[in-house]
Amino acid sequence: RYHSGKMKPQVYVTRQVNKEALDLLNECCEVSIWSGPGPVPRDELLKNISNKAGLFCMLTDKIDAEVLNKAGENLKIIATMSVGYDHLDVTEIKKRGIKMAYTPDILTDATAELAVALLLATSRRLLEANEEARIGGWQAWSPFWLCGPGLKNSTVGIVGFGRIGQEIAKRLKPFGPKRFLYYNRSEKPEAANEVGAKRVSFDELLMESDFISVSCALTPETKELFNENAFKKMKNTAVFVNTSRGGVVDQDALVNALQSKTIWAAGLDVMTPEPLPLDHPLFKLKNCVILPHIGSAAIETRQEMGLLTAKNIIAALNNEPVLTELKI
Ligand code: DGY
After folding, report:
1. Is the same domain home to 118 and 76?
2. Band of the pLDDT at 6, cuts 50, 70, 90?
3. Residues pairing with 79 in the sheet
4. Quick check: pTM over 0.90?
5. What angle in degrees, to the nearest 10, is found between the helix axes of 299-317 and 19-28?
6. Of 5-19, 58-72, 207-221, 293-307, where does mean pLDDT reach its minimum?
7. CA-proximal residue: ligand 1, atom 3 (nearest)
């Protein structure tokens, strides 16, 4: 075992994470941490990765050939505290025989929950309503003021019907939509059956859905899947919700679609870049709800993500099976 030797393997952690995770790592590894506010600056990462055996990183850290070259031959495991891995240059990492780990499953519920919250906040205009109440816009109860589309009898389209997409559908079902449609690489008969979802083409989903919720991974195939054309195909009453990655949307096209009322509203937990610049046009739109990438930000979930990331690193350094290895 690695830690029974004289030298403990060195691990670099790119952010101050939970104590449980660090305690576990400290038992068998020599741990160094970027403990500054926010993400590790690139030059710090490049400097500190040298000779490390393990890297505990976040979705805010771009792990590419440059980082891997600086790391050198010792690097055995890159474990990201996220389910998304579009920040990892998978090809370069695999070429060097370095293992990868991520945190699927444990964040599914939290992320699905947030997607539902965001969908409702967007369709029922919660933030706008709160603002009106604060600034004196609330003069009297009014019959059609601050109305938005309800889920009852609607068509809900899920793009990316994997773990998270399926859980979003399950949580939306009690709201009584008429039907669920999904667009996914592969058929998911069991999960589809459970909620009564029908697999359709991307175009059909766009044209038929009243609500579109995106939960697919960002890959070369899904990059800017939602472009000008896609928004044009949607209903002008459609509510668009994205909790996956900003990169699946052509953001300028989304701004135009919202400004021109080509679609009704958007709720975004992810965008490009993150954080979104304060003067970005999306912030000026009343029909756009913006959250700062908090999909998995349930307290216990984040703690479990930290712990699992630490366990994955330790397993790899002990040549044991990595709990949630990213194999692609
Ligand atoms: C992920 O894990 O990829 C989410 O975006 C953050 O939890």
Report:
1. no
2. low
3. 56, 101
4. yes
5. 10
6. 5-19
7. 84
